Each structure stands twice: as structure tokens, then as C-alpha cells.
Amino acid sequence: MHDLVIRNGLVYDGLGGKPYEAGIAIDGATITAVGTVTGAGREEIDAKGQIVTPGFVDPHTHYDGQVTWDPYLQPSTFHGVTTAVMGNCGVGFAPCAPDRHQWLIGLMEGVEDIPGTALFEGIKWGWESFPDYMDTVEKSPLALDVGLQLPHGALRAYVMGERGARLEPATEDDTAKMAQLVEDALNAGALGVSTSRTEKHRDKDGEHTPTYKSEAMELNGIAEAMKRANKGVFQLIADFRDVDWEFDMLRKVVEISGRPLSLTIEQDDRHPDIWRTVLDKIAQANKDGLPMRGQVPARPTGVVMGLTASLNPFLLYKTWHEIMPRTLDAQVAALRDPDFRARLLAEKVEFKEGEISTQLFSWFHKMFKLGSPPNYEPSPDDSVEAHAKREGRDPREVLLDWMAEDDGKALIYYPLMNYLPGDLSYVEEMLKHPNTAFGLSDGGAHVGIICDASFPTTLLTHWGRDRTRGDRLPLEWLISGQTKKTAELVGLYDRGVLAPGMKADVNVIDFDNLTMDRPEIVYDLPAGGKRFIQKTRGYTASIVSGVVAFREGEPTGALNGKLIRGAQARPHGARLPAAAE
Fold first, then answer.
1. Residue spans per domain, the chain
2. I need a surface site. Which of 53, 201, 423, 434 has the fewest CB within 10 A?
């Protein structure tokens, strides 16, 4: 008698080969058979007409606060995620001195757009060091597995105080203290270290993230600590304005540490060619024996705007602020009122050249309706600008009409990064590059303006089934990229493959009917904070360590998840084909 048997499904085992019909037997937290399963299961799932995959591993989330109050880590778990890795981009909540709680919350609020009120209400501080934070997470109820990375921003502020926040260079003593804390965190089970070197990351007061100008000595000191521990991965985001200098500095981190590094790859319209240069340099590093990867998205980094969202294209208009305190119904009425519209459209706003806000609020050729199911590869012919030209109207009039639809719940989609050609050809190039890995969903972050935690579902539905404006990609390759390859990116070799002896994290998916809903605003964060969630239909079951944790994306109440402490080796006795090892 097996604990759980999945029968009759089309198995995509995570290895990238063609699927095959098979049964899967699970006993305890381990897969014990893949193929013909003899004997019954205490629980059985008939997967006839459905696909069976490993559980999805998301290497780039920001649930560092949410994990202490939410066992289910929504919205990622609406999308088949059974392992989430957080602590990315150099921001998080440990280490942290007791008098710096408010400052760290402000940093996370600014960089990752998580309401400070929710963090104040939700986080029950019980730690100072990173190992203590890990202990707190380990004691928290969890429906899925989580891995933690040490955030350089919190580390720098902990060691250097205000000097670190003011971007002052680290001294040799500062660097030595940081290095020791890195080593301690890695030995306690941190999966790695993360940092940020982008001007886009600022705290709630508009100040740069503390790691923005970290110098070579400081980064090399962290690398030396990783070398001594012989553990961990290094994750970062950088602007690469001086691409040769900055990449060489980061390449040196890998040379010193001997540890893998992954970095964000995005196409920015203001600097449209840097991403290709960085990918070329990553390719050369790999030829030279250095383990570097680009983390790439499944679709554009997409800002979602509207009356219910945190952003809309009229936020810089003084007239708009007249209606901001009103109810949603009253705002919709104002958008339809000729007098209000005339006053709003008569107002002139000066936009600063080169600012992201200028793009978001005035580049009408990149604004689209976000329907249900949402279209993440819209044609330029469907933009606000194109509609306005055809109708002979001011594009802002079109925007006001669109925003008032669906009783004010309509959303405007702005593909901020990776959409310069007006399609996903750049993203396709990123996904197919031999030295990249899927990531950047930012689950748990940017909760009022971005809802990219659905990246895993986009990989399956858009790239594997529905794309019409370009080539589709093999489903077996996409699934391997979101399971085996993302797990191994962060040192997890015990999951991501359906084979005897492997960890029993499994998705059963009604692939033919898998559908994403449009994002919607809910007010379920602590202190009534709002956020976007995006649900799906088609994830029949998501299994964590042998137990069904989610049905149709909704939690069953099972809390079988755990904190992952450090890299995980291939389980003894796991039977994978030799080519997969």
C-alpha cells in the first residue's frame, strides 16, 4: 500500500525528454516508483488527460516578511510553486539591530513596493542575526518549502549603521565583519548571498539601496567568505552602465569565491543594448569555466495600472488628486463626467526625460488593455496610441474610457522591460540562451503595481501552447527549465525531477484547460493592506513532500513545507538516467 498514487497521467519528468504515460507512487516524502505502479494508494489521483510535472521551483521571490505570517505564500502557490527562494536583490529583514526595524521596513517598502503598514503589523520580530531569522522561519507553519538568502543591504546596514545607508565605502574592518556574518549565515543554511547595484532600487524616501555603490574590496570580502564556507550562490541586479568595469568586478567575485552567480537580465528601453552585451560576457565567462547565469523573465516586466492599482497614468496631474480620496464608484463617475475630463485634459504636466515615470505616464504606445485571460504579448495595433490615432482622439481620452470599464476594475498593462520590438522576441532570445535560467517573478513584491508571480503559468500556457505572434517552445523543455534547472540554480538537487528516490513535489495539471485570470486587488495583507493576486484554473493538485497541499491553487490546509537549510545533494539511491546526473 502506497501513501499516494497518481495514475494515467502524461509525465513530464523534468529531464527535458519527451513525455510518457506512467503512474507515480509516493511513500512518505519520497517518490518510490515511476512507471507501472502495482498496489493501491491510500489516496489516489486519476490524472487521465492531464500532465504530471515536478513541483515548480521559483528562485526569485520576496516573501521575506510574508513568510512569517502567511503559510501559503500566495500568489505564487496559485501557479504550481512548491519551493520558493527569497532574500533576493539585497533586501530582507536579517540581520537587523532592534533599533533598525523601521529602517529595514522602509527599504523593503521602497525597493519592492510592499506596504510598510502591512510589514509593521505582520512581522513579529524575534531575531537579530540571520541564523536567528532562519530559526524563526523554520518554526513558522509552511505549506511549501522555502529557501533563504542573506541580503547584502541588511548586512551592510547592520555592520555599518548610517554609514552603510549613506553609501559610504566599507572599511577593511567593516568588510571583515560582513564576511564573518556571511560565513555564519552560509554555515547555518543560507542558500546564498544577494545584492543590488541598480538605481531603480530606492527606499520609501527615494534614497538609493545601501549596496548601490559597494566597491570591489567589499564584494571580494564577501566572495572570500563564500570560498571559506564553500557554500552558497550569489545573486544580484545591476544597471551595467559602465558594463566592462562592472561586469569585470562581478566576474572577480566568481573567480575568488568559486561559487555560482546569477544576475538579472532585462532590456531597458533607455539603454536597449546592454542586456545582449551582458549575455555575451556571461557566455564568455562560462567558456572560461566560471559558473555564471543570467536570470530571465517569462514575459515583460509588466506594470499594471488602473483605479484599483497603486499607479495610473494620471497620478502627476493635480486635477486627478481631487478624486483620489473618493470611492471607486465616485471615481468612475468622475471619469465619465465631461467637466472633470475637460479640466483634467486641459492640465499640462512636465515629464522629466529619462525617468521611468515618464515612460509609465506618457508613453501611450506601450499601454494596453489587460483582459481576462490577460494577453501578455499584445500587438502595437492594440495600444492606447494606436486606438487614439484611428479614432482621432487624445490618447488620454482613450485611457479614461478604458479605466472606467468594468465598474473601474479594468486594468492597463504597461510592458516596462523586454518589449522594445512590440513582441516577445527579445524574451524568446533570453529564454533560449544557453547560459540563462528562468526567474524574476518577484513573488510577494511590487504588490500594487506588478503581478508577475504567474511567470510559471505563462511559461506553460503562452510559450508552450497559445503563442501566435512567434514560435512556441517545447513544453518538456519549459517544464525542465522551471523545475530541474531552477532547483539546481540554487543548489537543490533533491527535487525538480520525477524519479524514484527524489523528493515528492509534484504538480497534476489540466494543461488543455489551464487558464490565468486577470489580476485582482484584494485587501488581505496585515493592517488591511492591498495587493494584486492572480488565480488560475487547471492546477488540479500541487503536492509538497508527498501531501496534497493545494487543489486548484487553493490550500488544503496541509502544512508539509519546511525551511531548506543549505544546498541539498541528490538523495542516496535516487535513480536518474546517467545523462541527467
1. 2-54+499-554, 57-300+420-489, 303-417
2. 434
Fold agreement (2-54+499-554, 57-300+420-489): no
pLDDT grade, residue 444 (50/70/90)? very high
Q: pLDDT grade, residue 113 (50/70/90)?
A: confident
The total of other beta-carbon atoms located within 10 Å of residue 581's CB is 8
Q: How far apart are CA 382 and CA 254, in angstroms?
A: 44
Q: How far is CA 372 from CA 366, 369, 577, in A?
A: 19, 10, 41
Mean pLDDT of the chain: 96
pTM beyond 0.90, yes or no: yes
- Cis peptide preceding 151, ω within 30 of 0: no
Q: Assign a CATH topology to domain 57-300+420-489.
A: TIM Barrel (3.20.20)
Report which residue type is found at 333: A
Burial class (CB in 10 A: 0-12, 13-18, 19+), 291: middle
CA distance 492 to 510: 27
Statement: residue 429 has pLDDT above 70: yes
Superfamily of the domain at 2-54+499-554? Urease, subunit C, domain 1 (2.30.40.10)
Report the alpha-carbon distance of residue 356 to residue 206 in Å, rounded. Answer: 14
Residue 201 neighbours by CB distance under 10 Å: 22
DSSP, residue by residue, 440-453: ---BTSSTTTB--T
Q: Is the peptide bond before 272 cis (omega within 30 degrees of 0)?
A: no
**Spatial distance between the Cα atoms of 504 and 341, rounded to a whole number of angstroms:** 57
SS3 399: helix
Amino acid identity of residue 359, one-letter, is Q
What's the pLDDT score for residue 324?
96
The SS3 of residue 579 is helix
Q: Name the pLDDT band for 580 (thresholds 50, 70, 90).
A: low
In whole angstroms, how far apart are CA 458 and each of 340, 363, 417, 567? 39, 25, 16, 28
Amino acid at 500: P
